[in-house]
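Appendix B. Chain record.
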Amino acid sequence: MKALPAVVAAFFLLLPLLHRAGFRFNPTPSLPKGIYRIAPGAPERGDLVSFCLESPVWTSLARERGYVGPGSCPSGLRPLLKRLAGLPGDAVAVTPYDIQITSAAGSACFWPAPARRNDSMGRPLPASSLRAGVIPAGMALVLAGHPGSFDSRFFGFVPLAGMARVEPVCIFEPSTMGN
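Structure tokens predicted for this chain:
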């Protein structure tokens, strides 16, 4: 039992090294909880991705409410892990029931549960930044299968250039991985 604090301390000392080596940890229900690693290649539709949230409004809210823990992003937050759902040129339609993404080739997919008005603790959320329209050049739509996921349903489109593909290494609990 006395060794446990030393093990925990060693783990937290190793985190920066593991992050630099491309490992990411997901402690949220947005994707299965576990360890992921940066994978080679440019992200494509449907891939799991890691990225830094850049919007000052949403990074402040995430920090204040503890939605995202401290990490290596310029905002001081941990990178987010989500699924790349929409690419530049895709059309996005937002209804009270779902989000429809139609690719430039005409194929469509639906994501349930648009942004909620309150978080899991009942606190009001700012109006969603996601609007219907075409995803602009250089931007992407990131979503997760969990209805309460802190994703593009709230903070809108994110820069595609800052994304990296990730693959699961060790999953601690099963969860819906989304579409």
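Further analysis of this model is presented in Appendix C.
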